[in-house]
Write a structure and sequence with these properties.
134 residues; 33% helix; Aminopeptidase; 4 helices; six-stranded mixed sheet; alpha+beta; binds coenzyme A; single chain
Length: 134
């Protein structure tokens, strides 16, 4: 768990309280998936079911040196598989409006921008909501 928290603090702009990670894992372990290389954690995804038939991806991060090697895609695909098993039909997430690589990444995986949320983040930045039906 420590490695995931460290990776999150290095790669994600938002600050998450360490206790949240335990909460996410205990609430929906199937949606807390890590990628390892040589016994080191190089990426992770965290998502939770919300309302019936919906899930939300809360975090996705790949270590900077390991990007563009399809690792994020594999984590996302595994998450979608677990979600399907839980009868989830819709996936949603928020992304910073200036995070072009993440927006491109999610669009490649069939997510569409559905909304813009003003001042969504702790630092006042705006978010796009992106959604996909599975
Ligand atoms: C977004 C992120 C998770 C992508 O992970 P990744 O493992 O590098 O992505 P993949 O290698 O699976 O990429 C799949 C496709 O997404 C798109 N994509 C990914 N990174 C991209 C970039 N930097 N620029 C443009 N398109 C990109 C491409 O279409 C790519 O396919 P291709 O490599 O064949 O062109 C990663 O860049 C990351 O950790 N970013 C920082 C954290 C973050 O922004 N998280 C998301 C918001 S919570």
């Amino acid at each position: 768990m420590f490695s995931v928290i460290k990776l999150a603090s290095e790669t994600l702009t938002e600050n998450y309280s360490p206790s949240l990670f335990n909460y996410f894992y205990e609430t929906f372990p199937q949606g807390f998936i890590v990628a390892e290389k040589h016994h080191k954690i190089i990426g992770f995804i965290v998502g939770l079911p919300i309302r019936s038939e919906n899930a939300r991806i809360l975090m996705l991060s790949i270590s900077e040196s390991q990007r563009r090697q399809n690792i994020g895609s594999k984590l996302l695909e595994q998450f979608l598989k677990e979600a399907t098993l839980q009868n989830i039909k819709n996936i949603e997430l928020e992304v910073r409006t200036d995070n072009n690589k993440a927006i491109k990444f999610y669009q490649k995986h069939g997510f569409d921008i559905t909304e813009k949320l003003s001042k969504f983040y702790q630092n006042g930045e705006d978010a796009y909501t992106m959604k996909k039906t599975i």
